[in-house]
Amino acid sequence: MGVHGPLDNGLLTGLLNPTIALALGAVFLVLWFYQRHCPYLAVLAASYWLSAAGFLLQYFTLPIGMAPTKLLSVTCFTIAASGLAGAIVTRYGRRVPFVAIGFLASSGLAAFCWFMFIQPDLTWRILAMNFAFGGLSLVVAAELRVVRDRGPTEMMLFVLSLLSGLNFVARTLVIVIAHGPYQSYDGFYASSYWTTALLSHALLSLLIALSLFCAAALDVMKTLKAEAYTDPLSGLLNRRGFEERATHLLRHCATAKLPVALVLADLDHFKAVNDLHGHAAGDRVIADFAAKLRSAAGTSCVAGRIGGEEFAVLLPLSDLGAARLFAEAIRTVYSAGSVDGLLPGTRVTASFGVAARTGEEGLEPLMRRADEALYKAKRNGRDSVRLSYERSPHGRSETALVVEPLKAG
Prior knowledge:
This protein is an alpha+beta fold. The protein contains 13 helices and eight strands. The N terminus and C terminus are likely disordered.
């Protein structure tokens, strides 16, 4: 293996990029070991390591010869750039544009081979590969531009992708026009093109990696928060998660002047289910009810398991009548079905309390009124829905609680 040029400051500067790339690849690999469900992290690790290999092969010539070594170097760069582009797009839930990436990568390599082996021209080799890499960067920018709910990391990567595209295209054109053309590799690694390429690549690689590190860290934080706020048995929010999400939704509905209602549900005779059929069967009952509740609530509502066998659903854009229909539909479907693990013919029911928000009523008083309605349903035969009203009687300024019974069908 030969060294392309003396071991001088230029070479030491050139080793900056492979050193950075090797370190970044190692960090992404460690992240992947802890987040195996995120394969894009492994792709990032491989991409940065291939990038490091590409830079090293620019300085060290393999026994196969200079031209094949340069081709191998550019191939490493191309695969690394394609992997990086695909990984970033995947991270943000977009479909990887394989056709665009494949076209740009293969076109760049084909042009490089032409100007290396058929019609040797170093300047056109530089232009061909930089235009290909610039195109890949702009493809990433185009994909990130349409990502919904873009946060700071998405915006940062979008800007960096644009800057990377400009760096590969505009910088290369300006320097080639001003200082080119380049006839051979003699003195090339001390040229203004190579020096600016090294420095800009090092800076952009670090900034892109830091943005991706932040994105991965945010993923971990979201996962931990979801686990802290989610009830593992039902898959719904736990009490803490429900109260936080419900408070936020109530605040939003108050600002937008939208109606909102709360439905509380409690499984009837749940202790008897546990005693007769075992706790495993009781767990299946809770999971089955939660699945029906989640299916009916959809994504716009806030649903949670707030106690052992007690559930809550906050319904935006719903008045008392709409919430009553929602509760009655759940009650009917649940009482008519069966639960796996229970003896055939075993019927499990639930009772419901419904309250609609008045004014800018907070979550605590709203839950208190719904709970009082639920208590009425439990006390008066169960398997029913009761409604809570809050209104001012004639001649009095204070509010009074009125609970309207709704007989089970």
